[in-house]
Design goal:
The structure is a single chain. This protein is mainly alpha-helical. It folds into two domains: about 130 residues, 3-Layer(aba) Sandwich (Glutaredoxin); about 120 residues, Glutathione S-transferase Yfyf (Class Pi), Chain A, domain 2 (Up-down Bundle). Helix content is about 35%, strand content about 5%. The protein has nine helices and four strands, in the order βαβαββααααααα. It has a four-stranded mixed sheet, sandwiched between helices. Strand 1, helix 1 and strand 2 form a beta-alpha-beta unit. The termini are far apart. The model has no long low-confidence stretch (mean pLDDT about 95).
Length: about 300
């Protein structure tokens, strides 16, 4: 018997999870040619500390030193049938649910409400709910209004970054969801085995280089980090990706600790939000809503990755 899917509109007839597309995909540009110029104080980021897609944008906002230029509001980790909610009314618009931002932008919107969201305070609408695009905007468009952060998308690596991004997204970032939200055994096994095939390949790649492209972490490293940091705490048990833990990989665990200790990134990780969201929100997978007490891993331990860089 086929199980009840978490998101019925995103489930195929053979039990596969097929993630919906992004609804809003406008761009902020440095020169304003898109109609959305990069200006300090104009944009606001709505995020969840639990969501890996939103976590990517939180990290880039911090690394690019845009915290003073772009405001940010965090939603409650528990998402119910009304969607993402705010602890207190949103300080920018007074929203109580993120769905209000979607309806303000498109009154006819009927899809699933997702994070992150980049909001334009001037036009009072969503610019984008595409985490890939938001990351790239924060990396490339706001240089003149930020504090001079690192180049996470350098020209010389762009082709390779784009190629590795595609692999990591399909088989790891989204792969754990395809395993966890599968409603048929075959769909689950195909997704889960692809997850570990990719982890094995990344571990081998990291045997000879400190980060995925060498001595400096770039965009793909942070796209990978947000899945790795959740893996042992959530995806191993909750999403049944349990062939191996990240802790069991000789290179991936040290790499994960290295990134966690990088330039305040550890401050962006909130395991309380992460675990309460997954274990309390996905009631088709965890109907008791019991949140596990472990694992108790220390990501601040010495990692020894300096020897490679």
């Amino acid at each position: 018997m086929t199980a009840k899917p978490q998101f019925p509109d995103e489930q195929s007839s053979d039990g596969q999870f097929e993630r919906q597309g992004d609804a809003f995909t406008d761009w902020v540009t440095a020169d304003g040619s898109s109609g959305f110029p990069a200006e300090a104080g104009r944009y606001h980021l709505y995020v969840s500390l639990a969501c890996p897609w939103a976590h990517r944008t939180i990290i880039v906002r911090k690394l690019e030193r845009l915290e003073d230029a772009i405001g940010m509001t965090v939603v409650d980790p528990i998402r119910d049938e009304r969607g993402w909610r705010f602890f207190e009314p949103d300080p920018v618009n007074g929203f109580r649910y993120l769905s209000e931002a979607y309806r303000a932008t498109d009154p006819a919107y009927r899809g699933r409400v997702t994070v992150p969201v980049l909001w334009d305070k001037q036009t009072e609408r969503i610019v984008s709910n595409d985490d890939d695009h938001i990351m790239r905007m924060l990396e490339t468009a706001f240089g003149a209004v930020g504090g001079g952060g690192p180049d996470l998308y350098p020209v010389r690596h762009r082709e390779e970054i784009d190629a590795l991004n595609a692999l990591v997204y399909e088989s790891l970032n989204n792969g754990v969801y395809k395993a966890g939200f599968a409603t048929e055994q075959g769909a689950y096994e195909r997704a889960a085995r692809q997850v570990f095939s990719t982890l094995d390949a990344l571990d081998a790649r990291l045997a000879t280089r400190r980060y995925l492209f060498g001595a400096t972490p770039l965009e793909t490293d942070w796209r990978t980090f947000v899945t790795l940091i959740r893996f042992d705490a959530v995806y191993v048990g909750h999403f049944k990706c349990n062939l191996r833990r990240i802790y069991d990989y000789p290179n991936l665990f040290g790499y994960l600790c290295d990134l966690y200790q990088y330039d305040g990134v550890g401050e962006t990780v909130d395991f309380d939000h992460i675990k309460r969201h997954y274990y309390c929100t996905h009631d088709d997978i965890n109907p008791t809503r019991i949140v596990p007490i472990g694992p108790l891993q220390d990501f601040a331990v010495p990692h020894g990755r300096e020897r490679l860089g």
